[in-house]
Design a protein that fits this description.
The complex is a heterodimer of chains A (about 110) and B (about 110). With about 110 residues, chain A is an all-beta fold. Chain A has strands at about 5, 10-15, 20-25, 30-40, 45-50, 55-60, 65-70, 75-80, 85-95, 100-105, 105-110. In chain B, the strands form two sheets. In chain B, strands 2, 4, 5, 9, 10 and 11 form a six-stranded mixed beta sheet that branches. Chain B has a five-stranded antiparallel beta sheet with strand order 1-3-8-7-6, with no helix packed on it. Classes of the chains: A mainly beta (about 110), B mainly beta (about 110).
């Protein structure tokens, strides 16, 4: 069966520091991969998605970037964090053809 | 662009039925999904329905789809305290193979 792992679960970082959040999927190949941010327990904002290795689509221009160095690995990064980057970050995967997305457990990011 | 709308809050007494409603705008929607998010966790897929169906039942959950009115509902029978969560409606379309559109979520509060 397929599983998705996100880490770390929680992270506290100072303003201006770099960021790297990692997401890996097991049990499937060539998934679509997604990064979302959720502010204050409300709606989901799609940040990036990827349909293949090295292919990244950005939905919202901002202080973050994403990379997909391997088929089942998706990384969210920042060179310098802002206070506004605080939030709950969720990774998700799906196989195409209108299948559901499946989510990781999320990373709670707090910027001080 | 495409949109999915939900009411933000719903309060229900324990043991009663909960009905969470959702409307969407994309007439080419092919699948519609319901996700549940408990505090501090990722989104859990509850159920989904293909657009050529009008009802799907799974234990205490009943999904009703009115494609003409672009209206989707989730009924939870015999609501329990463990049902307290945010419920997200989402839809996908063959015209948008890579992305799922999510509503902002309905927070279900259970009254004793």
């Amino acid at each position: 069966s397929q599983t998705i792992h996100q880490w770390p679960a929680t992270l506290v970082q100072p303003v201006g520091s770099p960021l790297s959040l990692e997401c890996t999927v097991e049990g499937t190949s060539n998934p679509n991969l997604y990064w979302y941010r959720q502010a204050a327990g409300r709606g989901l904002q799609l940040l990036f998605y990827s349909v293949g290795i090295g292919q990244i689509s950005s939905e919202v221009p901002q202080n973050l970037s994403a990379s997909r160095p391997q088929d089942r690995q998706f990384i969210l990064s920042s060179k310098k964090l802002l206070l506004s980057d605080s939030g709950f970050y969720l990774c998700a995967w799906r196989i195409g053809g209108n299948q559901p997305q499946h989510f990781g457990d999320g990373t709670r990011l707090s910027i001080l | 662009g495409e949109d999915v709308e939900q009411s933000l809050f719903l309060s229900v007494r324990e043991g009663d039925s909960s009905v969470i409603n959702c409307t969407y705008t994309d007439s080419s929607s092919t699948y519609l999904y319901w996700y549940k998010q408990e505090p501090g966790a990722g989104l859990q897929l509850l159920t989904y329905i293909f657009s050529n169906m009008d009802m799907k039942q799974d234990q205490r959950l009943t999904v009703l789809l009115n494609k003409k009115d672009k209206h989707l509902s989730l009924r939870i029978a015999d609501t329990q305290t463990g049902d307290s969560a945010i419920y997200f409606c989402a839809e996908s379309s063959m015209n948008r193979d890579d992305k799922i559109i999510f509503g902002k979520g309905t927070r279900l509060h259970i009254l004793p």
